[in-house]
Each structure stands twice: as structure tokens, then as C-alpha cells.
Amino acid sequence: MTPVASTLKPRKLPVQARSAVTVGALHAATIQVLVREGLKRCTTTRVAERAGTSVGSLYQYYPNRDALLRAVLEQHLDGIADAVEAACRASRGRGVAEMAEMAVHAYLGAKLRDAEESRALYSVAEERGGAEIVARGRVRMVAALAEMLSSAADARFDDPELVGTIALAAVLGPVQIVLKGLAPAGLNEKLGPELVVLMTAYLKASANAS
Amino acid sequence: MTPVASTLKPRKLPVQARSAVTVGALHAATIQVLVREGLKRCTTTRVAERAGTSVGSLYQYYPNRDALLRAVLEQHLDGIADAVEAACRASRGRGVAEMAEMAVHAYLGAKLRDAEESRALYSVAEERGGAEIVARGRVRMVAALAEMLSSAADARFDDPELVGTIALAAVLGPVQIVLKGLAPAGLNEKLGPELVVLMTAYLKASANAS
Amino acid sequence: MTPVASTLKPRKLPVQARSAVTVGALHAATIQVLVREGLKRCTTTRVAERAGTSVGSLYQYYPNRDALLRAVLEQHLDGIADAVEAACRASRGRGVAEMAEMAVHAYLGAKLRDAEESRALYSVAEERGGAEIVARGRVRMVAALAEMLSSAADARFDDPELVGTIALAAVLGPVQIVLKGLAPAGLNEKLGPELVVLMTAYLKASANAS
Amino acid sequence: MTPVASTLKPRKLPVQARSAVTVGALHAATIQVLVREGLKRCTTTRVAERAGTSVGSLYQYYPNRDALLRAVLEQHLDGIADAVEAACRASRGRGVAEMAEMAVHAYLGAKLRDAEESRALYSVAEERGGAEIVARGRVRMVAALAEMLSSAADARFDDPELVGTIALAAVLGPVQIVLKGLAPAGLNEKLGPELVVLMTAYLKASANAS
DNA sequence: CATGAATGAGTCTTCATTCAT
DNA sequence: GATGAATGAAGACTCATTCAT
């Protein structure tokens, strides 16, 4: 655990059932307020109110507002990373095309499951300390991708880490556009296939001629 | 054009020479404060102070803090779009590989020229109204890319608009990682070539077999 | 009732005992500051300071400065209206002269009880939204007067509403002069009797010859 | 001239034609802004702009904002007083009923000629220093009324000054209600006659039995 | 432990007034 | 003389955080 992590986690472990419920409610409330009001107006009081508790209680679980926001972001990204990791594990030993397809769909599915939540958290990711959390999530996913790529049946990669990094980041951009509702007509439906094309093409282009 | 646009532009046109200086200083100061202090601490007072003027003067030219921020963002993105447009114009009629190379380098060069500025403005883009400005910039670039792709000597695209959108967004992701300084060792140097590989591969994969 | 009314009332109902004290202190402080400093210098900070609290607390109970001012005005006018209503009820069935006397004294008594407060609130009545509150108070008093007049033992009125309106407004003018301390020497003492003469004369002149 | 008066008058006399025009434009603009924006938003810049000049020029003629507002108020009230004085002069030696009628109509006519202006200036009259100006206007009118009353053919008054003061103030109230548009239906049309009834009744009641 | 009232530093924004051009 | 850019004090309002109940 880095020192950063210590401020991210709830102040005390939710050993009691009540605590777990409260923490869950606070997380959900944070996202709702974030969606409805935006980051600046996502205040501790408002979150507590929406969660059905008091500010005092909020501070029982989080040392400050930033910690709450970071925790929510982290949980969100962990969910995405979990999905990608699982997909990568399941694709070990397959061909590159299959890998691309599964990874893309895992990522896309997780991200679009709660599109509003994903969208709302972009601003949190830009806050002080947000980048590190995003980076941690990416590290997990890149590691999973790299490990998967190394096991590809039909390709060999000199630097699977690098290829994974680029591939992941490349997919991220188009997804963001769609999430923000700024995509040109038609993109929304074609996003999945198009991303598969994108990733497959890149992976193949990056593989060693063998 | 849009109602948003009207609030982006300075409130009054500088009639006297002093004004132009003040406006310029405010732009520069905004970026500096953004870089050094972050979006939240980028207050009107601080910007005015760094610019060597008073808050009053700031409000003489911008109706509110958001308008200032948006104006700075818009100017930045216009610069990027200019560079990409020029590159696209220059690449008309070339082959797809050349196109990818020129477009990537134009974008990358413009973005990395003031890396700190680019980095700082990501948070502004997440603010209320920021997305529209980003979208406007993207529209310009996508149009330029689409037009360029349509003129490719060695490929034909069914939907150059869509391909341009995806290609641009795909390039954006890796650049962002590098800008934020979160790239794994070695990526920084290989970014350019890698992006060319990425874009070329995608363009070729998207082109009609002809 | 009206949408205005909703912003007049304290934001939250005092759950704890402290709250009631704070709200009361704010009311009193507002009037004091209004009297001592005038409307323009009656700032939220000054009111809070005089009340022995903080601006934050003020805003806990009133959504904005105007709401505070209006609430104070409303409370003041409600007190006046209460007095007039009571007098009117008590005078039902009497003769017109008696009615005039009782109504005038009720109004005058209530208004002069806190002359400074009355004086200070004239400016508030001119603020945005003040007129409506004054109007509401007047409506109450006119209704009471009209009802009283309709029960007069020695006169009959075609339009008691109209007569009440004029009578009330006519009395208001001279009172205002005295409250503002701008009356010529001697008026202060003779105000009561003179207003009775005024109102009695008008009522009799407006009554149907019967 | 009292010291107060010196700050009320334009800083320099409009000896030149241009000055007179500017001062006139400033007065008119002040009233317009007052009507459209209210007292608080009636700023020197806005007034100058509406008048077609610059703030700098405004300060050429008025030492400060308050002086401008007071000058406008004074001019307005002088107009009213002129009208009442003329009517009083014209009514010398008539009967009390005629006097009431002429005075009321003179006052009413002057006040309603520019109803918006009258309405807008109520707030100015409540500002620091406004009361004195209002009082000066009243003094003029009361003097005229008193002199008129003293010449009545059919009545004698012990204290014409007092009677004039009350009569004037009594008329003022109902007029204010109508000006503010808060009068109950029907009052607007009947205002004149009703005020004549009011004033006549009061004058007769105040006259010595002779 | 929970609650929510109190705090007050810190933001944005406005505007009267000045003065260099 | 006219202009309008610059100034900065001052005001309204918000919100993270604390702590008495």
C-alpha cells in the first residue's frame, strides 16, 4: 500500500453491516449528485443528503471530500479493470483477432453499462490525485493485455507492454466520444465493430513478422 | 454560431492599444495559473494578479470565469486544428501511409509544442461548456481528415467521416497518456512511430479492398 | 401561496433550539442595521455580525439577502395588519366616527410603537419584491376595513372596498411624514386627532345619503 | 443655498449648448435606466451609455452618482410643485370645493403624466439624502396650499399650514398605490373624483365653523 | 455514534471613481 | 474636453469541516 492508498480507503473498515450500507449509499449518492449537478456542486452536504445520512456520518468514513471522490473513481475503474482482466484471462492462447474482439467488448461493455457514471467521473479523474488512480487502473489492464498478448497463438510481440498500452489508449478515445454524446450520427452503433477493427489492425501491425 | 460561442469571445473589442496587451496577458496568465495551480485554484483574482492587472480588467473582457477558461481552451484547440488542417491539405492525393504519417506528426507536434498547456487544458475541457468546444475542434479536424482520405491515391473509403473520427480519437488517447506523464518508460520516444503504425493499420483495414 | 412567499420563509425549520435563537437574532439585527446604516449598507455580513453569528448561518435560514429583508418587512406589516384587523373586529356595528377613531388609533399605535423600525422599512418596501408584500398587508387591512364599514350603524357604502382602500392610503401619507421626522412643528402631537378628522370626514362624504 | 444644494446642482453651469444637451440626456437616461433596471443596477456607466456619452463626461457634470440621482429627483419634484403652485395661484379666492378640485387635478395630472418616472423615483427618494429633497418639494406645495386656503371665500382655517400638510399627504397615498399598479380594479378610473371627495371633505371638516 | 448548526475563509462579480491618452 | 480602460474595495454567496448536543 502506498501512502496515497491510505487516504483513499474509508477511514475505518466497514466491519459492521450498517457501515457497509452507508458507504454504499454514499458511493451511489456521489455518482448521482455528480451526474445531476456536476463536480463543483457535488458537495459533501448534498451527497450526504442524497444518501440519506448526515455530513457528520460522511466524515466518519472519509477524511475529506477528495477522498470520497477518489474512492468512487477507484471503485469504478476497478470494475472496468476486473472485466478486462477476466476477458484477457479467458483469451489466453487464442488468436490476435479473437483477443482484440474479447478485450474490446469487455471494456466497452463495462464502460457503457453505466454510461452516465462513466461520463460523470471524467471530471473527477482530472482533479488533483485523479490521474494516479486512473494510471493504476491502466497499469492493471495493460498488464493483463500484455500477458494475454504474450500468449497469442498466431503472433509474437517484442514489447507486449508497449503494444498493450497503445492499444488500450487507442480504444479509450472513441469510447469517450460516444459516452459524451458527441459522436456523429451512426458512430454509436458501429463503435464496437469499429474498435475491433482498430485494435486488430494495430495488433497485427505490431506483431513480429514470423 | 451557437449561443455558447457568443460568451466565449471577449466582451468588448479592444479599442485602445492597452486593451490588446491586457487580453494577451490574461490568456497567458490563465494558462500559467492552470499549469501551476490546477483548475480549482485558477481563480479570477489569481489570474488577474499573474497577468499584472486587476480583476476588474478581467471582467472588462470576459463576462465570467468560465468564458475566460473557454476562450483559452478554444484558442488552444484552434491552433491544433489549424496544424492538422494544413497537414491534411498538404497530403491530398498521397498514399494512405503518407497521410497517416503527416497527420500524426502535425497533431503530435502541435500538441507537444506546449505540452504543459495541453495538459492543463484537459480539466477545462471537462468543465461546463468545455465539451462543446472540444467537439467543435474535432469537427474541424475530422472534416479535414475525411477530405484528405477521400483523395487517397491507394484506397477508397465508404465512410471517410467515420474513419476520420475513429482515427483521430484513437490517436488522442496515447497522446494524452504521454502528456500526463503517466506513460511507461520508453513510450515517450516511440510515441510518434507507434501512432503512425496505429493509424496506418487502421486506415488500411478500413479501406475498401479494391 | 404565491411563489414569492416560498422564498420569504426561512430555508429550514429550526430543528434544534439554537436555530430559533439565531433566526430571532437575525431579524433583530437586520432592523438595527437598517436603522443605523440604511438599506444600502445593510449587508449580509454586517447583519450577521450584529446578530452575533456568521454569514454562513444567515444563509442557512435565508436563501439570499432579499429574502431576509422581505421576511423582516413581512413580519412588521403582519403586526400592523393584526392590530388593524383587531380594531375593525371590535368596531363592528358602531357608528362611522367611532370606527374612524378606532382604526386610526390602531394603525397609528402599531406604526409608532417601533417608529424607527417603521421608518427603516420604507426603503425595503421599494426594493424588488417589496411592493407585493406591502400589497398583501394592505389587502388584509382593506378587507378588514371594508367588512367593518359594511356593518356601520349610521351609514351605508356602495363600495366599501374602494372606500377602505382610499381611507387607508390617505392615513398612510401623513403618518409617513411624521415617521420620517419631516413634519412641521406641531404636527406630531396633532397627528392622531387630525387623522381622525380626515378619515371621519371622508367616510361620511362617501356614505350614501340615507 | 444650503451646503446640500451645492452638491445637487451640476458641477458647472451648462453655459454652452452642448452641456445643456448632455445634462438633459443624462437626466432622461437616468430615468430610463431606473425604470428598466432598478435603482441598484442604475450605474453611472449604464446611464452614460444610454445617454450616448461616457462616464467621464458624466462626472464632468455631477460629482458623483448620488448627485445625479438627486438632481433627477429634484427636477421631477420641482415639476410637480410647479404645477401645484400654479393651480393654487389660480384658485385664490375661490371656494374650498373648487380649490380641492383644482389642486388634486394639478397634482394628479403632473404625477401621472410620466407615471413610470414617478414610480421609478420612489426608490431614489428613500436613498440617503432623498428625504430632504422630497421635504423641500413638499414645503413648496404646502406653502402654496396654505396661501390658497387662507384666501378661501367660504372658509377660514386656524392653521392652514397644518391643514395643507395633511391634505397633501392624504392625497399622496392613494396616488402612490395607483402608480405602483397595485390598486384594486376600478380604482384607477375613480381616483380623481375620489381624491376630490377626500380633500374637500377634509378641508371642510377642518375649517372653522363660521 | 449520529446529527446538523455554525463557522469563515475564499470565490465570483459589480461598480463608483480616476486618469492617461 | 471627451473617452473608456483600469482599479480594487466591497458585497453576495458557497461549502468543507468541526463539534456541541
The average pLDDT score of chain A comes to 90
Task: Specify the biggest β-sheet of chain A.
Answer: none
Indicate how many domains the architecture of chain A comprises: 2
Q: Per DSSP, what share of the residues of chain A sits in E-state strands of 2 or more residues?
A: under 5%
Most extensive chain-chain interface? A-B, 43 and 44 residues
Oligomer: homotetramer
Radius of gyration of chain A: 19 Å
Query: Roughly what percent helix of chain A?
Result: over 70%
Count the beta strands of chain A: 0
Under CATH, the topology of the largest domain in chain A can be stated as Tetracycline Repressor, domain 2
Structural class of chain A: mainly alpha
In the CATH hierarchy, what is the class of the largest domain in chain A? Mainly Alpha
Low-confidence stretches of chain A: 1-9
Shape of chain A: elongated
- SSE order of chain A: HHHHHHHHHH
